[in-house]
Amino acid sequence: MINDIFALSNDVRYVAIYRDGHLETKSKEGTIDASSSDSDRYEELLVNPTLITLATQRGNIDCGGLDYLIIKYGNFFQFVLPTTLGHISVCIDKNADPVTLGAKVASLLKDKISGT
């Protein structure tokens, strides 16, 4: 799945899949202004699950739920897609369109789940 996400666009810098307590990550070689692998790990294990929980709880009150999160850091976007057993996190170049690329990631996941 990680390689499939990288294949969607050259604007993908990093991909993480956190599923059922297991974290798998991959970074693009030679990425400028990348965060450290240690901080990426904590983001996937602590920050993103917490943000998903908070946004899901808020979304479930009267907003129709949560589809995904997009975070804009100074050097890149982070697209976070909740899944049944965790999340998929994609770091996207700061000059790219994270909504369009995020939709491609969501569609890819849907296709993988349905087996198409």
Could you write a compact summary of the structure shown?
The chain has a single domain (2-114), classed as Beta-Lactamase (2-Layer Sandwich), CATH 3.30.450.30. The protein has helices at residues 2-6, 37-62, 98-114, and strands at 12-19, 22-27, 69-72, 76-83, 86-93.
Give the CA-CA distance, first to last residue: 13 Å
Order of helices and strands: HEEHEEEH
Tally of DSSP β-strands: 5
Tally of structural domains: 1
**Biggest sheet statistics:** 5 strands, antiparallel
Please supply descriptive tags for the structure shown above.
single chain; 116 residues; alpha+beta; Beta-Lactamase; five-stranded antiparallel β-sheet; 3 helices; 5 strands; 41% helix
Task: Explain what this protein looks like in three dimensions.
Strand 4 and strand 5 (86-93) form a beta hairpin. Helix content is 41%, strand content 29%. With 116 residues, the chain is an alpha+beta fold. The mean pLDDT is 92. The chain has one domain: Dynein light chain 2a, cytoplasmic (Beta-Lactamase, 2-Layer Sandwich), CATH 3.30.450. The chain contains three helices and five strands, in the order αββαβββα.
Topology at a glance:
Blueprint: H1 2-6, E1 12-19, E2 22-27, H2 37-62, E3 69-72, E4 76-83, E5 86-93, H3 98-114
Antiparallel strand pairs: 1-2, 1-5, 3-4, 4-5
